[in-house]
Amino acid sequence: MVGWPTPNEDPTDEHYAFEKGAEKTGGGDGFADVWRKDCFAWEYKGKRKDLAAAYRQLLEYREALDNPPLLIVSDMERFEIHTNFTGTAKHVYRFTLDDLAANPAEPLRLLRAIFLEPERLRPTVTRQELTEEAAKQFAKLAISLRDRGNEAQAVAHFLDKLLFCLFAEDAGLLPKELIGRLAARMKSDPLVFSTQLGQLFGLMSQAGGGYFGTEKVEWFNGDLFDGAGVIPMETKEIEVLRTVSLLDWAEIEPAIFGTLFERGLDPDRRTQLGAHYTDRESILRLVEPVLMAPLRREFELMKADIKAMQARGMTTYRRTREPSAIEKRFNEFLDRVRLITVLDPACGSGNFLYIALQSLKDLEREALLWGSLEVSLPVQFPRVGPHQLHGIEINPYAAELTRVTIWIGEIQWMLRNGFAYLKDPILRPLHNIETRDALIDWSDPEHPVEADWPAADVIIGNPPFLGGKLLRSNLGDPTVDALFRLYDGRVPREADLVTYWHEKAPAAIEAGRTERAGLLATQGIRGGANRRVIERIKDTGDLFVAWSDQPWVLSGAAVHVSFLGFDNGTEPQRALDGMSVGAINSNLTTGTDLTKARRLGENLGQSFQGPVKIGPFDIDSAVAYPMLDAHNPNGLSNRDVVRPFVGASDITGRSRQMWIIDFGYDLSREVAALYEAPFEYVRAVVQPIRATNRRLRRRDKWWRLGEAARDLLAEGLSRYIATPRVSKHRIFVWIDARTLPDSSVVAIARDDDYTFGVLQSRVHELWARGTGTQLREVESGFRYTPRTTFETFPFPRPTGTQRGAIAEAARRLNELREGWLNPSGAEPEELEVRTLTNLYNQMPAWLRDVHAALDAAVFAAYGWKRDTNDADLLSELLALNLARASLGKESATA
How many whole angstroms separate alpha carbon 58 and alpha carbon 353? Predict the structure, then answer.
């Protein structure tokens, strides 16, 4: 009919065959009635036989048939073509013999495709797209129900039951299209709809189930179906439910559905409904090395052991009932997979736990197939399941979504792989997913204690990120006070919230309650106070896998994060950013460990971060100039306290011509008030803001800047060197000493061209990048700090001639840059784009040349070859740092 030969023309049966033999995943031998390699497997049944049963039969031995892209079943009158492509939503093409006779075009297209071009039948809608649409529609329901005043947790629980029903009917656990049919018939009578829905939920919650009309309903239970309670729905809401019921819920991707749906349930997250989410592949990037890699190694070792036993003549079966040595070795590995436990102590809506469960079940199935096909062991029923998962989640919406996600994933896996799901009841309670605080045990609110975590072999997850300065405003004083008290000496108070999970996980490993852990972290965990927890990991064990900079989705927004995998130090392999390495440093680098650098006495007291204002002390020229011309009763000029002001954007871009009111560090209120115009401005604009500040000094001394910086004028300097704390290019500039830098600027109290030249050289930039921390991707820049970057840097010890050469090269660089920034006669529009950022983005030949000359002079001062590579440069610099620190009095850790 389609011009294709019969299987008889392939006598080897290797590519095309009738009754192709295949071992079932559930045990025993089976046959696919027709099979063509990389095209299809086809199962025939007698007329009016159960095609669903035929399809389940194909599922049992599809792996033994090389997992063909199409699985076809027929009863001689009806034909169903089930797609089996990886990563797509399943689609079923159907036609009958009558269709073939009456209108053959479409049936013939399908038949030709299965033989000639199976790819033509690949579904265009992916599981991801289907899941996005399902979550979007359900979020509409959540928003509508919440906007009508229903309590949030009640809405979440009700909708969780509905979404599981939609999944259950498409997966064959409930009568087909039950919810859709009910919604279509009753949408005009919401009261009757609610009554009927309550009856359905009641049947699902009672032992033995029952009949809903003429249709049998199974017993579900499992805490989800805890009774007949429903939230009354309006006609428009019932219509949304009817629409969403038309989707193929059996193909929903639980790994992302929970996150998307959770945004609809939580009013605070509705703005994230259309935002990105974290996909399966990103989660596997952590789950695979932390949880699965050791098990895969054990799998390979088990296979090698059994092959060695066979080579020694040992057999699979024994005449006695006692298992053979081969069976014992095989079952030993299976027990390892079936007993391993996984904890996510901030499980959200269950993404990590779902992926972990799927991965463990896939490995168990792979082992069962290997034992059956390669060793002729009897195939066992898979036993890996939700009981091996533990979770802690403070948000009750998310915790229940985790339970639903896990059960959907469990049932999906069983059905897709040809296994029966559990019954009586279908669901079991998942009390191992706890709704509570993972850090503080509030059982006694007056005396909170540190929260315990259940013992688990592996800890994985994505704990919440929250900067140290935002803790009180987001968590409240009682929680933060408890955190600081309970974790005092273990987590720095200025550290990100995520670091508390990174403290508790290695503590669990050290105590022997956990073997391995893999957690996400903010990129900032590589530096500053946050890095203390990585140092703690390395003190008690070690990192074995890390990704220093990975795109992620946090609260619906695209961000960059770090991944950390660690244990007690026994893992033999190390990988950083996907590359095998010998070691991973605590700043998530490899090679020279710059975290060992010490602060050098020769550099102390010369580098400062600009002052933290804590209030709008900064003013523009229109406000500043009248103040500068105003008179005071004491005869002093306001220029004493109104100073030019420079921020990072003034360095990397064009100057904003800003000023700042600065009354210094110890000026009394009475003396400050004599500078009348500036003081009255601060009293009117700043004092109301400072009056609510938590710090007593900032409330009482409201006319002073929040955190003072060293006054560079006190050093007798006419100028100082400045660089942005955060920037893509490490740029240094000269600033007039009267100008005050803001907190986005690091000021260096030196006014000589030699220092300027060394700082602007490749040598110092390499050190700055190594000792600083990257904020997000490279384009977002990296951080420069007085303590870890400048004070640790070992300047060269040049001769007079070498010092002069560096100074001359630095002056030349500065002159040419200034000439490019402010050319004579340039129009304002042209000046607007002449910025140092744009200059270094373009890096014209003249700029490369003057930097090369500067670098050559600096290298000569160190006594290094010009072509020394970056790794060797850092090694040499660290050696210099440590050598000088060992001789100096000041050598504190950076």
Answer: 29
